[in-house]
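Forwarding the complex inputs:
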Amino acid sequence: MVTVLTNTSEFECDESEGGLWTSAQEMSSQLDWALKPEGFCQGDTCVPIPSDRVNEFVQDDKVNLSAFWQHLGRPIVSSTGGDITVLGESAGERNDALLSLSAPDFTLPDFNGKLHSLTDFRRQRVLLITWASW
Amino acid sequence: MQDQDFQIVSVAMDSDIEAARPWVEEASPTYITLVDQNHLLSSLYNMVNVPQAVWIDESGTIVRPTETGGSIDILREFDPEIGGFKPEAQERAQAAKATYLEAVKDWAVNGSSSRFTFNAQEARAHVETMDDNAAEAHAWFRLGQHLMNHGRQEEADAVFQFCREKHPNSWNIFRQTTEKMETGIAAGEGFWNKVMALGEKAYYKRVDMDGMP
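Prediction (whole assembly, two chains):
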């Protein structure tokens, strides 16, 4: 089993044939990408599966997360032992998001562990400001 | 300054929440104070240092992209003889802070009609983009943080070393992952060597705002 990390989630996944295979349902709940006849879809955005390489991405009810992530051009990094894999975000998508001027949403805890999202403050102007102890 | 129209959201970029907690307790802020152990905001908003500030309007639109807020680059004006920054550098730093604070107040009161907000074209021109190595470094940082949280410090250190090499412009990665002094501040020899190696480059990029020194 491999522990898969994204910005917002952590889950376990089977590794075989050089890929991270999981159920389409798990992919949908953990990564918010759904397997549809059009391909892999997030909201209205669908990424078609190359017709000559379907087996690399989908087999029975399983999907290959690492193959899909590579197909999106996003970074994948792993621990030396291969037991932990991070599915990262690409510079291009990050830059496009910032250039859209739509503030990227996030959910983070306060110092009492209560979660807050940027979108909780819609209808207010927000001064987002970072600092650190170091 | 806060009211129903204006909210300050302060985020500590700290791997260890307990390192940040005393600062929060001492300040006992009235605004929202969050902690970002994985440095998610570095990745989302392309932040490479602290402090960094972003102005977001009522509709969730960025009207001032990531910038240094009220801080300016005076690090190399430290005078060892007086054990502090040169007086003229201190004056500039205070002026920068005051200018930025006045701008924030103006925006808090006047909203989109504040002269300190950017229109869409200006805002886009002020967005700094990241490269592939930086994006990959953020993924490595997530891995290093996970390893550290699971007691695998040696592996984490190797991963963090790799992060620093992949994204050398990130002071957030450098200072978070290198050795701290007894005070918990990463301002030892390694930090100063890196600052001095900046050459013409700024530690804090100047904020593009009327009245900023």
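The first strand of chain A starts at residue 2 and ends at 5.
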